[in-house]
Each structure stands twice: as structure tokens, then as C-alpha cells.
Write a structure and sequence with these properties.
Helix content: 25-40%
Number of helices: 27
CATH superfamily of the largest domain: Ribonuclease H-like superfamily/Ribonuclease H
Number of domains: 6
Shape: elongated
GO biological process, one term: DNA integration
CATH class of the largest domain: Alpha Beta
CATH topology of the largest domain: Nucleotidyltransferase, domain 5
GO molecular function: nucleic acid binding
Protein name: Integrase catalytic domain-containing protein
InterPro entries: Integrase_cat-core, RNaseH-like_sf, RNaseH_sf
Strand order of the largest sheet: 4-3-2-1-5
Radius of gyration: 53 Å
Largest sheet: 5 strands, antiparallel
Structural class: alpha+beta
Distance between the termini: 134 Å
């Protein structure tokens, strides 16, 4: 039973079978002959042969081989990469290629139209306007073609051309008309005439040497022409043995006018490259518009500019000088993604500070007047820099290597590669900087037009200027139309809108920790820890966590070992409010954050190192101005006179002796002491701790002291009084009257012989002190 087929689908028997193609479709083959010359890819090639479906070409300049198919050659012809120059076989050979149809002048077009007016009637058999005639077949016959030629000439009102001339036009049109158009009928009048030089190859060599000498800076054509003449003379001297005088006379020297024409025919780029400099020659070129990247932060440009304004410190009112601005721009969106303002020459520290600001989110709480968002943050892939010394140093290369940022460089003296950033600096000066008080204008010449001193009129504080700069970047630049953006360059687009379109679909890599930037750009020194913390450039830093270093067994104090232990301290040059101290005793490399003390915290927090240096220099200068140097010198001289007068008095020695005796008595009184060791409870267990008692038992024959009856000491040394509390002669009551019931003051030393104990003798003579040990 046959299944039901819907009405809208034809029955299988009614559908015609489609042919199955198991081989590629056939293409037309070009009718080429050996020695046909083509222009392919800007080089001249000669067709040699056909190898199956491949066409073999030989390059006439370097003998290179090219193999293409007919279809590939057709595609190259459609795009203008391939064109025929000279043909063989059916095509006539020419000395030069046809002119380009685009370059034809009005006179050449009129010439081609005149020739075509004779060619077309001869090919179709009648003049335009006449009715159709009997079937016509073109023949190269004078009898058939001359009436047509004369009829066309009469209509044009000119003398008819010769029959053979018209035949040549017909051959050109039929063979090359379909390829070159009417350009094949244009006469090559510019290539007519004799182009052989009268001086031959030797003269050409001499002209070449003269040109190479003339391309040196500040060399005139007359001086370079002398090189041409000397070259020809040197060749004649070398050929004198082989040529006769008549043959040597035929070697002519190019004239000065010929050499000057050769110099004038040299292109401007070559002249500027060798006579001036390569960078100057590079300016004489067209600027290439680079394509925009696909992702934000894919390509970022960075450059610096010294601002034409003097800024004032917020607290000390010190004029900081002209600030330097480092700006980062995203090429994909045209957004300015970060900046850094420094007070010194462009440095590595200011570069890293701007890089950190570009990669992290922006804190807009400090700028309440800015209502437009600034959503730029992310990982930079390629950071394009110019050849400034502060951008190509080893430190910046190491920092980019740490952050895994590729850092390509522009060619020297090519500012057009970052033209948008260069134009912004000029627009910033005219649109913001020059409108503020304290502006230094662009240069000293423009400053003369204004009757004012910018140092005296510097009133803009740094915080106010930073707020104006952020407002200018976010509210004006990021929100205005930039003609370098958009799908059609020149129409433009808004950077913030382009950012929103590209950033919503492009992820960003993870951001590095903030400590890495401090480690990259931070300044470090080896410092010791004092009782009041760490002092660095007159700022003190203290934290309870420093006790971990002070109490470590390996820590050394200068009072104990003569040299204290030094620790590596790192600080951020843009913020002196805290330092980072390395803990060398921690194997994990812990970092201790030490803030400034309360007395210095308000000053150091957020303070730039350059501002601090200016403040220190200003403070030293103020103290130096307040110091009366002449009065100080007079006081020192008067003190020296008093010292000399005191030494010259006759009673000086007597006073010194009395003073020495008094000081000696005081020292002896302080050192006098009484040793009264108590008797141990168990003599058998504690007597061995007394070396003098052991020696005494050895002299007695080894008898134990506790077995003998107690005897009074033979010679007891008087006890020395303790230091006097109110005078030298005062003796405390407990020393003058010892306790009768207490232990023996002399203890186990009472039985020693005084003559054999030098220590007892020294104590008895009151001549012993700690200085004798």
C-alpha cells in the first residue's frame, strides 16, 4: 500500500533526478603564450608554460617562480593585482607598456577618440549614421577601407590618415581594446627619442659617486661635481695601458648641468633622509589611520606633559612649581583611564602612581561636583610608550614584567602614532590651564605679552587644581564627541558611550594587590629602630608591632653591641603617612605597616615626597634667617675669655685638690659594702657551694667543719660602713651595733688567715674598688 503524500509535496516519481557532481566545475583557460609579460603584485613576471592546471611565471628581477591557476589569475586581475603588459603570438611586441586609463589627459583622450572614429567604421563596414548594408566581412584591403577612411575624414574636416596607419590602429584595438580600453590607442610620445647617454657606463658610475657624495649634509653640487670629474680621470689612468689616445678621448665627462639635473631628479625623501636626518624625512609622508582595538584596556597610550601653571601647597602655602601630568588613554574607547600629577621631572615613581590609578577604580567621593561616572578599571594588555628616558628605563621594564604588561615602543620622533593624546594636551592648555591665575602660558615669548609675574599670582592650590582637572577629564572630554571613534572614522562618537558598548561584553583579568605597586615604586632605606620609633626625613613612625622586632633574640641594640640592627623600610613617595617595614625573622616575609606618630600624622598623611622636601628646605632656610650668627659668635668668644681667666687664678690648684678628695670620698662611700652570708640549714648539703670553706677543710686534713666545736674567729675584719645617707661621717645604727643574736657577719670566712687572703687585705686598707678588677 502506497503511503499518502501531501498535496504540496510532489510525488517522488515526478521529481527529476538532480545530477551528482563528483568533480570541480570547469573554468575557462586563458590563451597565453610564452614570453607574455604580466604585472603581478607590483613585480614584473614572464609567462613560461602551463603545467596541467597551473600557470608558471618567472620574475624578471630576481628569477623567482610563481605558480597560479587560471581562476587565481582571474581573481588577481579583478582586484587590480595582475595585468598584462606585453604579449607574444597574437599580440604585437611593444617597447613600453600602455599608459594607465586613469592617468590619461584630455589631449590623450581626444587622440584616442580620433583614432577610434576611424577604427570602428572600418570594422563594421559603414560610417555611423548610414543605414545597414549587405553582410560585411572585414578585409585588410585598401580598396575597401580607403573610402570609409576618406568619408570619416571629410565628416571631421581633416586630412585622412594613411591606410597602413589605420591598419595599425585596428590591430591595437582588436588585440588590446578589451584589456586596456582606449589607452591602447594613445601614442607613447614621451618615450620617443634617443635616450642613450653620450658618456656611457663610465659616466654613469661617476654620476653615481657624485650623487652619493652630494647626499652628505652641507655638500654643494659644485663640490660633489669634483668627485665626478676625479672619478672619470681615475678610470682613464687605469685604462691607459689598454686603450689608445683616441679611445681614451671618446670617454667623455658628464657636464655640471647634467649632474645638477640628476641631483634635482632625486626624490625629496631620499634627499631629506641623507642630507638632514631620517626623522625629518619621515615627516614628509601620509599618516596612516590605525584600526581601533576590540577590547577596552587592550591598547593603552601613555604620555606626559609639563603643565603651564604654578601650584601652591594646601597647608604650607609654598609655591610647588610647574606640575607634570602623566595621562593614560584607552585607544579602543578614547577614554582617559588614569592620571598622575607630580611636582618634579617625569620619574619612575610618578609613572607607577599613574599606572596604579589607571588600573584601579576611581574614588569620586573627593569630587562632589563630578556627576558623570568614571567607570574605568581593568588589566592593561599593551602599554604603548614613546622613547622618553622615564618610559624606557630598566625600572619600568621590570615593573611591566611584574604586572605581565606588554610594553611596545613607538618609533623615535613619531608623535602622530598617538596623535589623539598629543592633541588633548594642547586642548587642555587652551581650554583649562591658560584660564587660571598663575599660568606661565606656553613659553617665555608669550609671557612677555602679559604684565604679571606668575610666581606672585600663583593662587591655585593643588587640591583645587586636581578637582578642576578631574572635572575637565570626566565631564568634558569623556562626554564630548571624538571624531577618531565610531564605525565611520571622521563622523565620531562619544567616548563614554563607546566604553559602555564595549565594556559590557568584555571581561577583565584580576587586578594585582596594592602592595605590589608600593614594592615597585616605593623608596627604601635601611633604618634602625630607636626608642621613639623610626625616623625618616624628620618624620617619626611608631607602632606597637615593632616590639616583635625589638624583642627578637637576634635583634641587636647599639648600646649593647655598638651597632644596631638595620631593617628594610619602604615608603610610598606619594604618601608619607606610613612606611612598610620588613620582618627578616619571619620566614613568610611578613610586612609591618608603621604609621606616622600622632604628632606627625596630620602633616604626613597624603603628603608627596617632593612637597615634603620643599617644606624641609623652607624650614631650614627660615631657621637660618632667624639665627643671629654674629651674636652667637660673640657669646662663644666671651665664654672662652671666662675659661682662660679661671685657669689663670693662683687658687685653682687648691680648689681642684679639695674637689678631687671630695669626689674620691664619695666614690669610696658608694663602693663600701658588707658581705654577711647566712649559715645554711644543712651544712652537709650547702657547704660544698662555698669554695673557701672547701679550701679550709683541705688545709685542716679533710675534717668536716660541723664535727668541730665552734670557736670564735681569730682575727675579725671590721665591717665597712654602707654609703652615708646625709654625709661621709654618718654611720647607720645597724652597722655600728650588729645584732648579737644574728648570724656571724664574717660567716665561714672568719677562720681564714688575713695574710693569705689578698682580698681581705685590700678591704682592710680601704684601697679596694671596682675599678681595680
Amino acid at each position: 500500500m502506497t503511503p499518502n503524500v501531501p498535496a504540496h509535496i510532489p510525488a517522488p516519481a515526478l521529481v527529476p533526478a538532480l545530477p551528482v557532481v563528483d568533480k570541480p566545475a570547469a573554468t575557462l583557460r586563458f590563451d597565453l603564450h610564452a614570453k607574455d609579460v604580466f604585472r603581478i603584485g607590483g613585480r614584473t613576471w614572464e609567462f613560461e608554460r602551463r603545467l596541467d592546471d597551473r600557470l608558471q611565471f618567472l620574475c624578471l628581477s630576481d628569477r623567482d617562480l610563481l605558480f597560479v591557476t587560471d581562476q587565481q589569475l582571474a581573481f588577481m586581475a579583478s582586484t587590480g593585482e595582475a595585468s598584462i603588459i606585453v604579449g607574444k603570438g597574437r599580440y604585437a611586441a611593444f617597447r613600453a607598456p600602455f599608459p594607465n586609463r586613469i592617468t590619461l589627459t584630455d589631449a590623450q583622450n581626444a587622440e584616442a577618440d580620433r583614432k577610434l572614429a576611424y577604427v570602428e567604421p572600418c570594422l563594421r563596414g559603414h560610417v555611423e549614421g548610414d543605414g545597414p548594408r549587405t553582410p560585411y566581412r572585414f578585409k585588410r584591403s585598401r580598396r575597401k577601407l580607403m573610402p570609409l577612411i576618406e568619408e570619416v575624414a571629410a565628416a571631421r574636416g581633416e586630412t585622412p590618415p594613411d591606410f597602413t596607419t589605420v591598419l595599425n590602429w585596428i590591430d591595437l584595438w582588436t588585440q588590446y581594446g578589451s584589456i586596456h580600453g582606449t589607452a591602447c590607442l594613445v601614442g607613447l610620445h614621451a618615450l620617443k627619442g634617443n635616450r642613450r647617454t653620450p658618456f656611457g657606463g663610465i659616466g654613469e658610475i661617476a654620476l653615481g659617486r657624485g650623487l652619493s657624495y652630494w647626499l652628505n649634509p652641507d655638500v654643494s653640487t659644485e663640490l660633489a661635481y669634483a668627485k665626478v670629474v676625479s672619478t672619470v680621470k681615475a678610470v682613464k689612468r687605469s685604462y691607459r695601458r689598454f686603450l689608445s689616445c683616441e679611445e681614451l678621448a671618446r670617454i667623455s665627462t658628464p657636464s655640471l648641468r647634467t649632474f645638477q639635473r640628476r641631483c634635482a631628479a632625486l626624490d625629496q625623501y631620499t634627499r631629506d633622509y641623507y642630507r638632514i636626518s631620517p626623522s625629518f624625512a619621515a615627516k614628509n609622508r601620509t599618516y596612516e589611520t590605525q584600526p581601533l582595538p576590540d577590547r577596552p584596556y587592550q591598547d593603552v597610550e601613555v604620555d606626559n606633559c609639563t603643565l603651564d601653571i604654578l601650584l601652591v601647597d594646601d597647608e604650607s602655602d609654598i609655591v610647588l612649581g610647574r606640575a607634570d601630568l602623566i595621562l593614560f588613554r584607552c585607544r579602543a574607547t578614547g577614554m582617559h583611564i588614569g592620571y598622575a600629577v607630580g611636582y618634579e621631572a617625569p620619574s619612575y615613581a610618578s609613572f607607577v602612581a599613574g599606572l596604579r590609578h589607571a588600573m584601579y577604580p576611581k574614588d569620586m567621593a573627593r569630587f562632589p561636583a563630578v556627576n558623570t561616572p568614571w567607570p574605568c578599571f581593568g588589566k592593561i594588555e599593551n602599554l604603548w610608550v614613546d622613547n622618553g628616558l622615564h618610559f624606557i628605563g630598566k625600572d619600568i621594564e621590570a615593573a611591566c614584567r611584574e604586572l605581565k604588561i606588554n610594553k611596545p615602543r613607538f618609533r623615535p620622533k613619531t608623535p602622530w602614532y598617538k596623535g589623539a593624546l598629543e592633541r588633548f594636551f594642547g586642548y587642555q592648555n587652551t581650554g583649562l590651564i591658560h584660564l587660571l591665575p598663575g599660568s606661565t602660558k606656553s613659553n617665555a615669548v608669550k609671557l612677555k605679552d602679559y604684565d604679571e609675574n606668575p610666581v606672585e599670582h600663583a593662587k591655585i592650590r593643588f587640591s583645587d587644581f586636581e578637582a578642576l582637572l578631574v572635572f575637565f577629564l570626566v565631564e568634558i572630554h569623556n562626554a564630548r564627541i571624538s571624531r577618531g571613534l565610531g564605525l565611520l572614522r571622521g563622523v565620531g562618537d562619544i567616548p563614554l558611550r563607546v566604553w559602555n558598548e564595549k565594556a559590557k561584553n568584555q571581561p577583565s583579568g584580576p587586578l594585582p594587590p596594592a602592595e605590589l605597586f608600593i614594592a615597585l615604586c616605593g623608596e627604601w632605606e635601611m633604618r634602625t629602630i630607636q626608642n621613639d620609633g623610626i625616623v625618616w626625613d624628620y618624620i617619626k613612625y611608631e607602632s606597637p608591632e615593632l616590639s616583635r622586632l625589638l624583642t627578637h633574640p637576634e635583634h641587636r641594640s647599639a648600646r649593647q653591641s655598638g651597632k644596631g640592627t638595620q631593617y628594610k623600610c619602604v615608603r610610598d613617595p606619594n604618601n608619607l603617612g606610613r612606611i612598610y617595614v620588613e620582618n627578616p625573622y619571619d620566614p613568610t616575609g611578613a610586612i609591618i605597616v608603621v604609621p606616622a606618630t600622632k604628632a606627625h600624622r596630620a602633616y604626613a598623611e597624603g603628603r608627596h615626597r617632593h612637597v615634603h622636601d620643599l617644606a624641609v628646605a623652607h624650614a631650614k632656610l627660615s631657621v637660618k634667617k632667624a639665627l643671629d650668627f654674629d651674636g652667637l659668635m660673640d657669646s662663644l668668644a666671651h665664654l672662652a675669655d671666662l675659661a682662660v681667666a679661671a685657669r689663670s687664678k693662683p687658687g685653682r690648684k687648691r680648689v681642684q685638690r679639695r674637689l678631687a678628695r671630695f669626689l674620691h670620698a664619695q666614690r669610696v662611700g658608694r663602693l663600701a659594702s658588707t658581705v654577711t652570708p647566712g649559715k645554711p640549714a644543712d651544712a652537709g648539703t650547702a657547704a660544698h657551694l662555698d669554695p673557701l670553706a672547701i679550701a679550709q677543710r683541705v688545709r685542716r686534713g679533710g675534717e668536716r667543719e660541723e664535727d668541730e666545736p665552734p670557736q670564735p674567729p681569730a682575727n675579725r675584719l671590721p665591717a665597712l660602713p654602707p654609703p652615708a645617707a646625709h654625709g661621709v661621717d654618718a654611720v647607720p645604727a645597724e652597722v655600728a651595733e650588729p645584732d648579737a643574736q644574728g648570724p656571724d657577719p664574717q660567716g665561714p670566712y672568719a677562720d681564714l688567715d688575713p695574710e693569705e687572703d689578698d682580698l681581705s687585705l685590700l678591704r682592710a686598707s680601704r684601697q679596694w674598688s671596682t675599678a681595680d678588677e
